Amino acid sequence: LLFGDHTQPILNGFTAAAVAGLASAGYMADLSAPFYMGVGLSGLQLAWQVNTAKLDDPVNLQHRFGSNKWFGAMVFASIVAGKVL
Question: How far is CA 33 from CA 24, 52, 55, 76, in A?
C-alpha cells in the first residue's frame, strides 16, 4: 500500500480528521448534543475499522469496508437527532 508500515497510524489520523470535520459541521449547523454523541460513536466505529484491519487479509478488509454502511447510518441518525432533540 501507499503508506507501507505507516498505513494504520495515517488512517487513524484520517479518522480523527473526519470526526473533527463532522463535529465542525455540526457546530456550524447549530446541532444539539445528541449529534456530538453520535459523531463520537461513529468515530469509534471508524477507529475499530482501522485498528482491527489486517491489510494482508482481503476477507477481513471486505468486512471492514462493508461496515461503512453502519458508519453512514450513525452519522445520518446523529444529524436527525441533533436537529430533532
Answer: 13, 29, 35, 15
C-alpha cell at 18: 473526519
Question: How does pLDDT run across 47-79, given as a tens digit for each residue?
Answer: 999 999 998 999 999 999 999 999 999 999 999
Helix (H) or strand (E) holding 30: none
| SS3 letters across 53-75 | CCCCCHHHHHHHHHCHHHHHHHH
The model carries a pTM of 0.87
**Residue 18, burial from CB neighbour count under 10 angstroms (0-12, 13-18, 19+):** middle
Q: Which contiguous run of DSSP H or E holds residue 5?
A: none
Cell of 81: 437527532
Cα separation of the two ends of the chain: 43
